[in-house]
Amino acid sequence: QLQLVESGGGLVQPGGSLRLSCAASGGTLGSYVIAWFRRAPGQEREGVSCISGSDGSAWYADSVKGRFAISKDNAENMVYLHKNSLKPEEEADYSCAASYLLHDYGWVEGAPYESADEYDYWGQGTQVTVSS
């Protein structure tokens, strides 16, 4: 069974940068769509970005386009989320998740990549604090 472990969270100043890592084990990255979600206190979980583990196709939420970049390293079974120009309202618990079915369907524009219901495997999350 696929297992996901996040790392890289911490304290960052507004406008700063941070890289989150998601380590996958028990499965092959190339068979999944891997996504990053975040949940701020009192807020609903929000899809941030995702990437096809095979061809690298990517999706971003409008709120992070141009500031966040998702990448992968299949040899290491790792997915990264590079976050720039962080805002205080982006302080949240960030989790990575994996979907076999979204990958099996093939990359389709407009597919529900932002929907948590589409993902079967989840990590425990890593906290990102944005504060001066």
The proportion of residues in beta strands is over 45%
How would you name the oligomeric state of the polypeptide chains in this document? single chain
Give me the count of strands. Answer: 11
Rg, rounded, reads 14 Å
- Class inferred from helices and paired strands: mainly beta
Give the end-to-end Cα distance, rounded to a whole number of Å. Answer: 40 Å
Which regions have little confidence, pLDDT < 50, spanning 5+ residues? Answer: none
Describe the structure.
With 132 residues, this protein is mainly beta. Helices cover 4% and strands 45% of the residues. It is built from one helix and eleven strands. It has one helix at 100-104, and strands at 3-7, 10-12, 18-25, 33-39, 46-52, 58-60, 68-73, 78-83, 92-99, 121-122, 126-130. The strands form two sheets. Strands 2, 4, 5, 6, 9, 10 and 11 form a seven-stranded mixed sheet that branches. Strands 1-3-8-7 form a four-stranded antiparallel sheet, with no helix packed on it. A hairpin with a 6-residue loop joins β4 and β5 (46-52). The longest helix has 5 residues, at 100-104. The radius of gyration is 14 Å and the shape is globular. The model has no long low-confidence stretch (mean pLDDT 95).
What would you say about this model in short?
By secondary structure, this protein is mainly beta.
Secondary structure elements and pairings:
Blueprint: E1 3-7, E2 10-12, E3 18-25, E4 33-39, E5 46-52, E6 58-60, E7 68-73, E8 78-83, E9 92-99, H1 100-104, E10 121-122, E11 126-130
Parallel strand pairs: 2-11
Antiparallel strand pairs: 1-3, 3-8, 4-5, 4-9, 5-6, 7-8, 9-10, 9-11
